[in-house]
Amino acid sequence: MPRVGLSAAAVVSAAIEVIDEQGVDALTLAAVAARTGVAPPSLYKHVAGLAELRTLVGIRVITEMTDRSVAAVLGRGGDEAVAVLLRTYRDYVREHPARYAAMPPDPLHEPAMIEAGTRMLQVFLATLREYGLTDSAAIHATRCGRAIAHGFASLEAAGGFGLSEDLDETYERLIAMYVASLPRR
Amino acid sequence: MPRVGLSAAAVVSAAIEVIDEQGVDALTLAAVAARTGVAPPSLYKHVAGLAELRTLVGIRVITEMTDRSVAAVLGRGGDEAVAVLLRTYRDYVREHPARYAAMPPDPLHEPAMIEAGTRMLQVFLATLREYGLTDSAAIHATRCGRAIAHGFASLEAAGGFGLSEDLDETYERLIAMYVASLPRR
DNA sequence: CTTAGAAGCTAGTCAGCATAGCCAGCCCCT
DNA sequence: AGGGGCTGGCTATGCTGACTAGCTTCTAAG
Predict the structure, then answer these.
(1) Which of B136, B155, B169 sits opposite A140 (nearest CB)?
(2) B60-91: string of b/e by CB count within 10 Å (b at 16+)?
(3) How many other C-beta atoms lie within 10 A of the C-beta of residue B170?
(4) pLDDT digits (tens, 9 = 90+) for A61-119
(5) What is the value of pTM for the model shown?
(6) Which residue numbers of B have CB closer than 8 Å to A's CBs?
């Protein structure tokens, strides 16, 4: 009985591979077990069950997106930073469409995800800092940005745009629309 | 063996009740069977299986939304019509959050849903008619509207807005942002 | 009244989650 | 170096749910 040397992180990585390759509905313990070369029950040594695995995957994905967003926005400001943030969001989703579907839409409601979700929120808020929005106005502006990015990206990832018009152009229009709505100083 | 007198439409209605009450993940043939007072295999007399039931539910939901949108927009025009369309979209989702999650994001890719999806698209395009957009510009504008409505509504339905700020206000801002982006004549 | 088809049923298979309980490899401690 | 305990594997088992096969009964048309 040679040991495989699994860990919770390795299980999550395998789960993400399964999702990337076969879609979020194909995430089963059986599939992850097969990929890691282990019998399904063995996964319970590292992960409490399918539900926990899903939240761990969600945390991983949020964290990845946040890290990328931070890297992209660092050193920029104003309209430029906002546009880059939105593009980065979409680019991530386009690169990993299935993975995005595994990201919970309400991270702030799941205790385990609050930390990761809050960090993402902070990046949005920080990017809007220069506009001098009051607390409440900043929240509204952040929500609008998130709704736009999530709405477009999730539709694109799901193949929801039937027609052949250029999607880059549609998204740039959305970005312009959003930037225009932010207050000039 | 008294007959229950089921039909495909009745099965879909029961499925929607299950979704409304217990969420979209609770849609199982077993649950629908229990609700209709029938053994699970009997459902196959009316519906080819869970997958088909889901697409029938999707069609029903799209059709309902379209009907409501048409009723709301009829007799209006311009910015007013656009705003009403977006509000109607969100209101439907707020009333039936779980049901919305059962609506496929890509109706134009599923042959069975093309008709219903196209009708919804037509309503969007017709509402924008007054702005005199060229074909391509109309597509981009429709997509933007859909991304905004879907993005906000799906996040709201999923409980994705953690903080307590007024959601009506956020949505009105999005509507204003969108309307402002449409060309003045 | 007969008969065919539709609508229901039971029984059974298979996938997938989960739990229980056993066994072997590995590390640490003396 | 040897031994013990933890840990990471395993098999076996049970449960739910989708789906199939094949039977029975109700009903409606002729």
Answers:
(1) B169
(2) bbbbbbbebbbebbeeeeebebbbbbbbbbbe
(3) 22
(4) 999 999 999 999 999 999 999 999 999 999 999 999 999 999 999 999 999 999 999 99
(5) 0.95
(6) 104-106, 108-109, 117, 121, 136, 139-140, 143-144, 146-152, 154-155, 158-163, 165, 169-170, 173-174, 176-178, 180-181
